[in-house]
Each structure stands twice: as C-alpha cells, then as structure tokens.
Write a structure and sequence with these properties.
Order of helices and strands: HHEEEEHEEH
Largest sheet: 4 strands, antiparallel
Number of strands: 6
CATH superfamily of the domain at 67-200: Haem-degrading domain
Strand content: 15-25%
Strand order of the largest sheet: 2-1-6-5
CATH class of the domain at 67-200: Alpha Beta
Helix content: 40-55%
Distance between the termini: 133 Å
Oligomer: single chain
CATH topology of the domain at 67-200: Beta-Lactamase
CATH architecture of the domain at 67-200: 2-Layer Sandwich
C-alpha cells in the first residue's frame, strides 16, 4: 500500500520539481554573460558645434605707414640734398642728419646722414677740433627727449647734450621729424636744418 502510494506520488513530485526549476532557468537565461556587459553603455558623443575658421591675419598697415617704411630712404636723400644745397649757398661744411620717429614719443627712429664737405675740423694750436657728426647726433639726442628745437630744452643740458642750436624738430602726420646740421655757426646750422625739414614735412 505504502509502496503503491509512493509510486503514484513520484511522477507528481518530479513534475513539481520541474515547475520549481523553471523560474531559476529563466533567471539564468536573462542574467548577463560577462561582467563587462553589466556596464552602462557610454552615451554617444555630442556632435561638435561647427566653429568659424580662424585666420591669423595681421591688421593691414595703413597706406601712409607703408609709404613711410618703403620710401623713407628716398625721401631722406631728398632732404639731405636740400640741406647740402643750402649749406653750399651759405658756404658751410659739416654733417647733415635727418630722422623720423613714429608715435608720440621717440622709442625708435629711421635716420640717415650725409657728410657735406667735412666730417670734422682738425685741431689747431689755439682750438680743439670738432667732430661734426658727434655734434649733430648730440643735437638730435636732445630733440629726441624734448621734442623741441635743439638749444631750447628749457632745462639744463643732460650729460651727452651741449645745448647747442642748429637742430629743428616738428610733429609730423604720425610721428616726429628731427633734423640737425653741424659745421657752421648756430644761425646757419638752423637754416640748413630747416631746408631738410621742409622736404620731410611734405610726406611725413
């Protein structure tokens, strides 16, 4: 009797056990196959916003600046020639100097010089010689600081300056014009320098 009941219960128990295993099998089938699959998927990168192309272009120089840079030598030669002619009219020999400094203060300049007859005067028994080039540059150096005609600084000369007249300075269109002559008396040096300044002023 007991054996018959056990035999009749075994098939049912097997079916019950099979039913109990189904959820476990389903759970195993749905579980990830590797730990890597459990990582969240990286979001797709957002498309880069289109940016305008950057062009490294220097701002174009003004036409007047280009003319000054390109033609200074030719203009300086004309100014020096005018000074030479004026010196010859006054029968003066020495050194002529012209310079152009862009901006409101002198930080750099373009310059040119010309020996008009003599670079220097030789010393004598009664008088020391003179280096006309050195004197012309001393006048120009004073004007570079004061932006006034040489000898008119309104202050005591600094070391390297002598307070001598003969150089002229003027405000140009976009900078300063500095002209100096050395070789004659101060009044003649000024007249010669003014001849050079008149030429530079036509374009600078």
């Amino acid at each position: 009797m007991t054996t018959a009941k056990q035999q009749t219960l075994k098939p049912g128990a097997s079916r019950l056990n099979g039913l109990l295993l189904l959820p476990a099998i389903a759970l195993l089938m749905n579980s990830p196959t590797s730990p890597a699959q459990n990582q969240p998927q990286a979001p797709a990168a957002a498309p880069a916003a289109s940016q305008p192309a950057v062009t490294n272009r220097a701002a174009p120089a003004s036409a007047s600046s280009a003319v000054r840079a390109q033609d200074f030598d030719a203009l300086a030669d004309k100014a020096l020639l005018a000074m030479k002619q004026r010196a010859q009219e006054l029968n003066v020999k020495g050194v002529a100097l012209v310079a152009y400094a862009p901006g409101e203060t002198v930080q750099s300049w373009s310059s040119k010089m010309l020996v008009v007859g003599n670079l220097k005067s030789a010393p004598t028994d009664t008088k020391a010689g003179s280096n006309f080039l050195g004197i012309a540059y001393s006048k120009a150096a004073e004007m570079a600081d004061t932006l006034k005609n040489s000898g008119n600084a309104g202050r005591a000369p600094l070391t390297g300056e002598y307070g001598w007249e003969g150089g002229v300075a003027a405000k140009g269109k976009a900078g300063y014009l500095i002209v100096a002559f050395s070789g004659g008396v101060s009044a003649d040096d000024v007249k010669i320098s003014q001849a050079g300044l008149a030429v530079l002023s036509t374009q600078l």
